[in-house]
Amino acid sequence: MPLVTMVILAFAVGYYVAYIFPATANMFVKFKIELPPMTKATLKMSDFILGNILWIVLAFAIPTIAFARFAMTERGKFLIDKYMWKVPAIGDLMHKTSIEIFCRVFYALYSGSGENIEIIKMASEACGNKFMEHQIKTIAIPMMVEKGMGITEAFEATGVFTKTAISRFHSGAETGTVKNTALQLAEYYEKETGYRMRNAIDMIQLVISMIIMVVLTALTLVSSETATVKPKPPGTVITYVLHSLRFW
Questions:
Q1: pTM of this prediction?
Q2: Rounded to whole angstroms, how far apart are CA atoms 20 and 50?
Q3: So what's the pLDDT on residue 12?
Q4: Nearest to 100, CA basis, from 201, 26, 187
Q5: Among candidates 183, 188, 35, 179, which has minimal Cα distance to 110?
Q6: What confidence tens digit (pLDDT) does each residue in 185-230 have?
Q7: Which of 94, 84, 89, 107 is nearest to 168 (CA)?
Q8: What separation in angstroms does the CA of 189 have from each of 34, 100, 119, 177, 194?
Q9: What pLDDT sits at residue 115?
Q10: Per-residue model confidence (pLDDT) at position 215
């Protein structure tokens, strides 16, 4: 919704600057009336947009389409999921959400019999993050199968689990309660991410509201500035008209 709001706001501002505002400003230009600074700058921006509308559209459309096509590939999904966790605020929520899903699937399928490699693999595929899935399949599972390492050491080597998750899995492995530990982690991260997500949404809504306020204020100032335009005295305009007629 914030993205849709920003796109609509951009189109509204672009339409105002490119079509609505010039209709008024060009009237003053026609009579050679000196324009105020903001009005003059906005008119120049309007002329630039109208003169280069094709290149502007291509400059936004080509990268967007290219990124969308790349994001649909396996490599694109892997890289996006890998660097998504580094995005401020949202990245940490996505990271912990992936761990939560992994733990829930792991809890639902784990039998505690020691033959749970396939279960770990299925949980990694269900977590919704290609990077996490790759790390578990290529690092954790081979370490457990080929080197006989424990679940804690294998998970820690992947680099995709938080310190809290590793600590809880370590305690669970020592006490034989890995399954219950996975459920506790899932419930803990569900509550934490739910609370932080609400805070993040409130912050995003506040930022969007401030951006809209700033844009509307700027448009109001530019529009009201035209009221300060001082046309030339009538005599000057008449003289200009007579001079033009005499010239023709």
A1: 0.72
A2: 12
A3: 83
A4: 187
A5: 179
A6: 999 999 988 888 888 888 888 888 899 888 888 878 877 776 666 6
A7: 107
A8: 62, 6, 21, 18, 8
A9: 55
A10: 86
Rounded to the nearest angstrom, the gap between the alpha carbon of residue 197 and the centroid of all alpha carbons in its chain is: 15
Residue 182 burial (CB count, 10 A): 26
The reported pLDDT for the residue numbered 187 is 92
**What are φ and ψ of residue 8, in 5° steps?**
-65, -40
What pLDDT, in 10s, does the model give residues 40-65?
787 788 788 778 888 988 998 999 99
Checking 178-181 for CB contacts under 8 A at 24+ apart, the result is 178/110, 178/112, 178/151, 179/106, 179/107, 179/110, 179/112, 180/107
SS3 readout for the chain: CHHHHHHHHHHHHHHHHHHHHHHHHHHHHHCCCCCCHHHHHHHHHHHHHHHCHHHHHHHHHHHHHHHHHHHCCHHHHHHHHHHHCCCCCHHHHHHHHHHHHHHHHHHHHCCCCCCCHHHHHHHHHHCCCHHHHHHHHHHHHHHHHHCCCCHHHHHHHHCCCCHHHHHHHHHHHHHCCHHHHHHHHHHHHHHHHHHHHHHHHHHHHHHHHHHHHHHHHHHHHHHHHHHHCCCCCHHHHHHHHHHHHHHC
Q: Which residues of the chain have pLDDT under 50?
A: 236-248
The first and second tokens of residue 134, run together, are 């790759």
Residue with tokens 């008024």: 24
Question: What are the φ/ψ torsions at residue 117 (nearest 5 degrees)?
Answer: -60, -45
Among residues 100, 132, 140, the alpha carbon closest in space to that of 116 is found at 140
Query: How much is the mean pLDDT over the chain?
Result: 82
